[in-house]
## 1
Amino acid sequence: QLSPPTPALTATQQLQLSPPTLDPAFTSQLVPLTMSAPSFSLYYWDIRGRAEVLRLTFALKGASVEVKAIVDMKTDKDLYKFGQAPVLIDNDASLTIWQSNTMIRYVARKFGLEGTTEADRIKVDMTVEAVESMRNPYVEMVYVGCMSEEAKAKFVATYIDKANVNGRNGGAHFDYFEKLLTKDGLITGCGITIGDICLWDMLDTVMRVFASEIKASYPALCAFHAKFAAEPSIAAYLASDKRPVQPNNNQMG
């Protein structure tokens, strides 16, 4: 019996059997594709202040940031639209962003730090605003009270002491913060969000002054503080000279 004729191979089948080879003279000129790190410019003083959440975010996500000196802040209304700093420029998108919490929400969207569900996003946004409520009395203690013993005692009594959690505090108390944490030790169950970064920055700032008071009353917050600080990219930033030494412009706090 005669064997049936072998069907002709299609072009695709021929390529699979004998893939083409590239000319070495051509392949030697190929340059591997690499993704460059997101690039930002930040106009701010050499303090942590309002820019530290941004710096922590850039460290976490491996973004490049060039910090630029503030010049003519009150007169250059093109760069300083509200006569204030910080000012953030996304060099890749050619966007200039004003107002601290607008910057925070922008980088949260850019780096996927808002949460994964609508419930997550609401809780993250709520945490950002809760931290802002705590920042106001902290700034008052530092810049108005000048860290006097009276100002510090008032801050502890109103915002840290559990005995006064139901008192008048403007919606700001560390007991509220601790109750935001989930069983995985973060704000949501979807990893680090911008809410976690904001909360950590506020907690870290206050613990510079009131570490013993926080440790005595808020073990879950302390565990959260340690967990976030141990994140490799964050730990590297915290140990580097890229982090400003002073938290505030008056060298207090």
Note: The longest strand covers residues 39-43.
## 2
Amino acid sequence: QAQGDEFVGVVLTCRGTCLVQSMGAFRRFSALLGLSGVLGSQDLRKLSLLQWNPHWQCVVWDMNNCVEEAGKAFTAELEKKDVDFANLIEYVNPSGILPREWTNVRSAPTCGLDSLDLVYNHVRWAPADDKPAMKGCMLTKPPDRPYVIQEFVQRGGSGRVVVVAAHFPHPKGYWDRSLVELAGLRDALATFFRSTPTRRVLLLADTNEFTHTTNAEIMRFLNVPGGATIGTELKPSCCYDDGFQPTGAFDRIIANFGASMDTTVLFDPLPVWAREKKDGNEGAFHKGIHGSLASPSVGVSLRGTPAPWLSG
């Protein structure tokens, strides 16, 4: 046990057996020591992913102490679910409240009032080759709807993945499935792929798309290369002001690799602090979506070396 370090919360007593009080803490502990796969290898075969847009009313109205409570809720989910990557949209810069294992990449300040933060576990992941993230706005006239594209490499191994965090524009209408509003992100990805051979892609986004637009259609329009589309279930994450209609599956996590994705809806039932109301109007709070992306059965090798499903 090390005081004041990432190892706090892990207590090992080794007289023939070892007691691990916190699997999440042990994953951080083992990653630091390069012991991935020694214990809990089944857990280590999964990526823990989170997508959430508490919406701007939480920050601007802040009627129910929403800013502080949302921050507490977000950091609690990071730790409880031991998240690898998260996309947090339309919230204040969270850098001052993140637990020590996580770092954020904030979107460009040029997309109007819109913002997002790509949050990652820097104990297990690092920006690949020290390259900066690609940042931009999906709309240009006026600039709006940010995205961040960053390639990451697994610490202690060679596994790489391109993570895309985005806040999509709204389609032109309810039945519009053209996805033309994603052209800016599609072009940015094409440019990004010219600088790297990595083709494993994770998309975490408030897509603003209804259930009749599939995850596969989104990935095809973005020209994400190869592989079957694996995504979270289309759950009604949007929105408080319309009663979370069944078709409002806006928040999604989609990958072009992996075997399966388990889905959990967060903040359900809706907490009191999320029920923003002002001058007779209700806020458009979204419920969070957590995805657990499982690899094929190849598992994870010892000493942090990634399984083939994360290579390339």
Note: Residues 1-23, 29-44, 298-307 have pLDDT under 50 and may be disordered.
## 3
Amino acid sequence: CRGWWSYPQHGFEQSMRVAYSHFFSYQNESHPEFYSIKNQTQNLQTYPNLYSAPYPSCLHWLANAPAPWKTMPQNRNKKKNNKDSNSNDNDNTDEDVRNHFMLFVGMVDHGDVPVRQEIHRQCVVKYGKNTTMCTYHDMHEKFGTADKKTQGNAFNAWIGEKLDAKFCLEPGGDTERRKSISDSIASGCIPVFFTNVTELNFPWMWQDWIAQGRILVPRQDFVEGKIDLYTLLQTTMPPEVLPRLQRTLATYGRQFQYSLDEDANDGMRILLDGLKRESQKRLDDQGHCVAG
């Protein structure tokens, strides 16, 4: 689409494009992060009007309601018990009640296969499918050649498990920005990334807070079997980190979903506000005045 989105000309010079991709990335097995990005300067020159938004989550919040998992029975009961015992609701060591520790939903032979194979080895072989340590759902094993609609319906059904899991493992797929990330964040399930390329996407949505809302596992050490996920997340990580990560997602998770009603802070509003700011910046740079 040269002259349209790449190297835009004429009327397209001012047209902004929103896509799931923020830059051109590709799988590169020789790269330690598995995904490579073409020269950033070249990306900006080739696609000067490109902005990115994440895949919309299957979960939808209400505008004037707390995060969905805060109203689940186990967390409502916990809050009631805290009040009955005069506990401080703002206690920084308090965490959401979730019955799954780690959760993976996907396929082992897709995307970043070395990472996915190691996840399978640890969750299925090493932990023996112990759901108190890791809950593992292999889409290929469960559905084989089932059509995309059937697979999609299964992912939707597993939103309930994301709402009840502390950590969601998010290895790269065709790209580093799999849709499951949106489902995890909107469900308050802390995403665990295995490449630092992922969070370079969607800057309007998460650049100010994602470092306080995710776990980043060094990919090469993990692939080589030097990192045990359960030990890392349960034992090595300081206990005060988990509730801090959960509070971050409770605050910003709505930005990765489209609410059921008008919401000043959901993904649609963040996207539209970003486009508005960029439009205003362009007008200012060109010396135009906007009627007030």
Note: Residues 87-93 have pLDDT under 50 and may be disordered.
## 4
Amino acid sequence: LIIGDSIGNIESLSLNFKNKKKKVFIENLFSINGFPINQLKCTKTGLIFFGSTNGTLGLYDSKKEQVIKNKEIGDTELITFHTFKDEKIVAFYSNYMRIWKKKKKNLYYFSKNKLICGKKFTHVLVNKSESFLLTTTFFGNQIFLWSILKDRLILGGKNELKEFIVSLKGNLNDLFTIGTHTGSIYVYSIYGHLIRTIKRDKLYKEAGKNDLQKSAAWFGENLLFSGKSSGRIELIDLRCDKKISYLTGHSCEVSNIDVSIDKNLSNPFLVASSDISGNLKIWDMRNRKELFFQKRFNSKVTSIGFL
């Protein structure tokens, strides 16, 4: 598990389950600038892409132990980014977007043109063929469609929802889930077709509260882990539109979730989660058992991702 924190550290955490004994290994991979790491993207080839709130964007090659990052930082806040198969990155800042390209081995550069969008996009989703992308803003009700033509992004249109978006998460099969301000969860295809609707929990409805989906992670195409504003993590089976299990242990909003799907691990059935207080938990999804808990005092966990 790769962890980014609120003071710019990126760490590696490993759990070893040999001989029925659990051992925890934590290694500091590198530190960048003292600003929070707000996003991590890990690849199977050992690359860790990272972004921080002061505009730093880069990658860490875990095999070579080498860090590459952009030089143009500090002018505006980096909100989110997406990495493509060719390791090109589209980065979204406070009011514009920019493409970070790989020119040759271990050499990246920003495209000269900034696309001023006038929106603070918090979520980006690219289709499987990487021909277009969707963007949206936190607590907005509009989803923008962009065409990808080489190194250009062209706005193709937008759709409006009746509810406000508080989270968005896609999977590898062109599906994505939206959590809204009412506590409802929707699953769409990236082409705009509504696949599933899961209304808010009856218990919270009766209490006059909305338990919002603030984070999510997919396990395959049919199982969805939904991180709630209450601290619960619900496992939803989309084949029957039911919540089949849940994890409890966080006392506040679950801000990040990731699921391990690497069958080569000693325990491939792991779920990692962190909350807005910066606490980290790792779970065994088969028996809902908490395997690891870390409460930090000098920093907060701000992003997580399985390598």
Note: The CA atoms of residues 118 and 296 lie 36 Å apart.
